[in-house]
Amino acid sequence: MKIHEFYILRCIEIAQSGLGDTAPNPMVGAVIVLENKIIGEGYTSEYGGPHAEVNAINSVADKSLLVNATIYVTLEPCSHYGKTPPCADLIIKHKIKNVVIGLLDPHEKVAGQGIKRLKDAGCNVTVGVLEKECRTHHKRFLTFQEKNRPYIILKWAATANGFIAPDKSLRAREKQPFWITNSYSKQLVHQWRAEEQAILVGTNTVLEDNPKLDVRNWTGKNPTRIILDRTLKIDTSHHVRDKSIKTIIFTEIPDILKHDNGNDYILIDFSKNIASQICEALHKQNIQSVIIEGGLQTLQTFIDENLWDEARVFTGVSTFKKGTKAPLITGELKETKNIDTDILKIYYND
User: Would the pTM of this model clear 0.90, i.e. be above it?
Assistant: First the structure.
């Protein structure tokens, strides 16, 4: 492996620590190397905090070493003032001679300007090291910037004979989720929730399951709840309207007297392409990623409009004699793994 690739891989590795916290900023990793030895490293802090380059530079005890060092970053250093000053300026200030970058930043406020600033200051800049791997790592940020929509993850669990929900006659009287998978898969799903900015379900899922859509079996932030409720059927007895978590409700009812304070309401036309309207609205809300845990109708809506990037599909060992069949999906199977008794398959919409 080439030396630049080795350190960019390390950047990607440490950057994963920011997953679930940095959005809508990208989760960048940075490593500072002197004479083939790492002397500093860092990743992007929680949104509003220091970027990866700042944390990496701050981690170097003897700043005089920086003048002869090389800094590696997964994404082009920013060149504009946001919640923090430009990282390119900090690199220049410390006279770091060599900068190795995995990927250009497509954000309109950067888009090559960071590289230009570094070169104008006399830095030796190398761009495009492990670009494919860096694109995969920054898939949420890049989808948001390049496609003007969130990164969409579909998730469902099916029985061994292909059902995602039982017939109503099999459900308990109390509204609650009907679990097909084992406790390990359930914990993994809660980890995923903590990693994404939002979670989306449709009306029927709320009415039948009364889910909380929070993070309970893992440590991390609760995602913003996105609820589809065309005619506002969901009443205040349901968890999703308890105002404990930021919640956005998509509806076609404009009467604000039917909207409760503490939750956000967005009007869309349910007779037209629903998924594309949702994606456009969530982009405006600065939501970079969404995991969709809805029922068949909601999942199939995004599949039919080809607005999905990843599908995570569990298969459990239980069976139903009757119920709701799983969605139909075509995509590239990238990974299959066993979660104890369950099978998890991950598809990408390439």
Answer: yes
